[in-house]
Each structure stands twice: as structure tokens, then as C-alpha cells.
């Protein structure tokens, strides 16, 4: 399962 | 991190530094919309809820603190600093920005990536940022002549999101599971709102004349 794409952008 | 995103973040930082310079150097906030500054403070506070829970990088954490700190400092300055607040164009800055907050929160409840507290506030902050500049653009049109620093502030603020769009295109083609359609569509709307400002800004730069927005 694709893990929740962390919010790596500002 | 790619060059478009780094350039975008630096441009965003530049817009904040120009605004701080204008307020600090001229001890005046004429031409600046307090409502836009309040909306931006809300954008950063609701977007960076993960500030203390998810550590991405030192750069990410530092920039979040700078954005939250500077936006709150500017709102405080425009509301409380006795010299600065006297130059605030309160009678021109009358955009009903509470409607923007309500509309964006409603949208976030309907369209979000996951129905969790953090994700809904993140989507809210993305939508709110797209429209946060409206009070400022309305104020510029009403106040007629725009001083250089204010014009540069709005220009950098618009340019940063345009660079982020290039970043999303780049990431779309270079990363498999990259999908940021909420941020992407909202970013396109945000940048489009600056279109007429960019046009008049370019004209004033080409003719080396004062920036004039038609009323």
C-alpha cells in the first residue's frame, strides 16, 4: 500500500 | 528537492523580506492589506500543524518557523505598532475576507485527500492561500499608485507559486506516485489571480513608469 505521501513541501 | 521548488521557496522568502523591509524602513504599511496578512498567517498556522510531529529536514522546519513567525509579526505590527498602524489604509481595506475563510473551510470539508483533522486543515490552507491575495489586489486597485516595495512584494508572492507549478510538473514526470492535484489546481488558480497584476507590472517595468492598476 502506498504510504501517505508526507507533505514534504512548504 | 528540485531547483524549481528551491527557487520557489527563495522567491517566497524574498517576498516576505521585501514586505518586512518596507514596513521596517518606511515605518509605514500604506498600500498593504492587513486582511491578506491575516489570511496568510492563518494559511501557515493551518498548513504546518505537522511542524512538531513530522520532521522532514532542518530546511523544512526552519522555513516553516520563518513563515509562521514573519506572518504573525507583520499582523502584530500592523495592528499594534503605534507608528505603523497609523499608516494602515483601514477605510480602503474592506474586503470581507471572512467569507473567503468560510468558503475555503467548506471546500476543504468536501474536497480533501483524507478525512482527517490534519488533512482537512491542510486542504483548507491550500485553498485559502489561493485566494488570500484578493484583499491585497483590491486594495492596490483602490489606492491607485503603488510604491515600488509593495509592487515587488506582490510580484514575488505571485512568482513563487508559478515556480511551484513548474516543480509539480517536474515531480510528476520524475516520481512514480506523485499526485498533488489539490495543490496543483489550487496553485493554478492562485497564479491566475495574479495574471492582470503581472501584466501591469511588466508594462510599468517596460515603460519604466509608475505601477498603475486600473480602478
From TrEMBL, chain B:
Keywords associated with the record: Endoplasmic reticulum, ER-Golgi transport, Membrane, Protein transport, Receptor, Transmembrane, Transmembrane helix, Transport
Secretion signal span: none
InterPro entries (UniProt xref): ER_ret_rcpt
Subcellular location: Endoplasmic reticulum membrane
PROSITE patterns: ER_LUMEN_RECEPTOR_1, ER_LUMEN_RECEPTOR_2
Transmembrane segments: 55-77, 121-141, 153-173, 179-202
GO MF terms held by the record: ER retention sequence binding
Any one GO cellular component localisation term in the record: endoplasmic reticulum
Membrane topology: Multi-pass membrane protein
Protein's GO biological process: protein retention in ER lumen; protein transport; vesicle-mediated transport
Pfam families: ER_lumen_recept
Membership in a protein family: Belongs to the ERD2 family.
Identification of the protein by name: ER lumen protein-retaining receptor
